[in-house]
Specification:
single chain, alpha/beta, TIM Barrel, eight-stranded mixed β-barrel, EAL_dom, EAL_sf, C-di-GMP-specific phosphodiesterase, cyclic-guanylate-specific phosphodiesterase activity, Cyclic-di-GMP_PDE-like
Length: about 230
């Protein structure tokens, strides 16, 4: 059995929940775990779960994003299936986050560009997750930039043992690039009130992290575990 867990995303000003990033978990009511292999989930499975989950979301949640690894991202079936359901999600706006996970061997730049173009043509909002980490480095960002709407920078990828101040040069680089390229910019990994104080004065669009909200279980329409409360800070 699979379910989504959702971590709230907050606008910076005002500091308020604007959506969820969705994470797939598998198991049962008493034993949910992170899957070892996300590629085993088909487009149909993910979209069916979306259809079953979105009617139970809090009314203040109007935006959701799901993560796709490279092999899923370049598979036309995923784009086609997500496009087929995006207008059926009870008024919820759907975005795609391309993860920083390693590129599948043999994947070409042309395949990446063509995939990004497909999502753009389907009016599916595209986010580059964890820029500056993994394979989402400057080369890929520049390659896909015409089709991307948002960059996310994950502070937690440079921790533990590194203070937020030491991360600032990297964060500043990506923030400035986002402004230059007219992209929205989200900072993930806001883990303390001190982080929040520093970053709230940093002119970003959105914030995400444990101090604002941890991932929560999202029930489906037929789930006996009840509903979830609206996000709050």
């Amino acid at each position: 059995m699979i379910r989504f867990w959702g971590q709230p995303r907050f606008s910076r000003k005002p500091l308020a929940p604007v959506g969820y990033e969705l994470f797939i978990r598998e198991g049962s009511a008493n034993n949910w775990k992170v899957p070892n292999d996300f590629s085993k989930f088909t487009a149909d499975q993910i979209c069916e779960l979306l259809m079953q989950t979105t009617p139970r979301l809090p009314k203040n949640i109007q935006n959701i994003s799901i993560n796709l690894d490279i092999d899923q991202f370049i598979d036309p079936k995923f784009c086609q299936t997500l496009f087929s359901v995006k207008n059926k999600l009870a008024g919820i706006h759907l975005a795609i986050e391309l993860t920083e996970h390693a590129t599948v061997q043999g994947t070409t730049e042309d395949q990446l560009i063509e995939a990004a173009r497909r999502y753009n043509s389907a009016n599916l909002y595209l986010i580059l997750d964890d820029v500056g980490s993994g394979d989402n480095q400057l080369k890929r960002v520049q390659l896909l930039d015409p089709y991307v709407h948002e960059y996310k920078f994950a502070v937690q990828n440079f921790r533990p043992g590194v203070t937020l101040n030491k991360i600032m040069p990297k964060l500043t680089f990506w923030h400035e690039l986002a402004k230059k390229n007219h992209k929205l910019f989200t900072i993930e990994g806001v883990e303390s009130k001190e982080d929040l104080l520093i970053l709230s004065h940093y002119q970003v669009d959105m914030l995400q992290g444990y101090v604002l909200g941890r991932p929560v279980y999202l029930p489906t329409q037929n789930d006996p575990l009840g509903s979830i409360a609206a996000c709050s800070n």
